[in-house]
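Anyone up for a design puzzle?
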């Protein structure tokens, strides 16, 4: 794992992020766990450890500056991405990792246990059927649908000042919606040449619509 550690440490430096050695080990152990379960559960198409560090860990941590508030939901978390790397980085924030795939939520539950993450829980549900007791300050999605549909499907999860972060590859056409304000940010992930961007979405209250 020494090559993976070097990639992770230099990537964190490039992102201007600081993590203790313990947390770096936690992140690398998470990659080992994905690799172990991947054979049976097909969690990710990426099989190479070093590529996992770049495409899973650093890609997830690249959005650290955009996280707001004390409650965050990762919608369609899959193998726990970006939720678990972010939960390791932000131990003071409460994370809920949501996915409709039972195999993947089983893996995520195991990853939470093995990573000893006290700030993280997993929920097996479709997003439109999930109604939490308490709303979220930030909702993250790897853009499972068009941006207009994402806003419609996730609006009920957000607090009144909450933000929705849609992680995308190439910059999408950003629709003009009366119900939401959207801002597009380029995201540079160390070691990845493919284009990455983030759409930050803020819901507009009906009283603010002229």
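Challenge accepted. My sequence:
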């Amino acid at each position: 794992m020494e090559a993976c550690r070097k990639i992770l440490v230099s990537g964190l430096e490039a992102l201007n992020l600081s993590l203790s050695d313990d947390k770096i080990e936690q992140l690398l152990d998470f990659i080992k766990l994905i690799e172990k379960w991947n054979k049976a559960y097909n969690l990710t198409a990426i099989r190479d450890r070093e590529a996992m560090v770049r495409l899973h860990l650093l890609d997830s941590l690249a959005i650290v500056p955009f996280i707001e508030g004390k409650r965050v939901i990762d919608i369609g978390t899959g193998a726990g991405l970006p939720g678990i790397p972010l939960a390791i980085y932000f131990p003071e924030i409460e994370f809920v990792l949501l996915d409709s795939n039972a195999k993947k939520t089983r893996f995520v539950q195991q990853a939470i246990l093995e990573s000893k993450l006290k700030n993280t829980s997993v929920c097996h549900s479709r997003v439109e059927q999930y109604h939490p007791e308490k709303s979220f300050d930030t909702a993250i999605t790897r853009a499972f649908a068009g941006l207009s549909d994402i806003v419609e499907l996730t609006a009920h999860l957000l607090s009144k000042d909450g933000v929705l972060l849609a992680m995308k590859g190439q910059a999408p056409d950003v629709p003009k919606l009366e119900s939401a304000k959207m801002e597009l940010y380029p995201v540079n992930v160390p070691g990845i040449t493919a284009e990455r961007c983030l759409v930050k979405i803020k819901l507009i209250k009906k009283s603010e619509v002229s």
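A detail worth pointing out: The mean pLDDT is 93.
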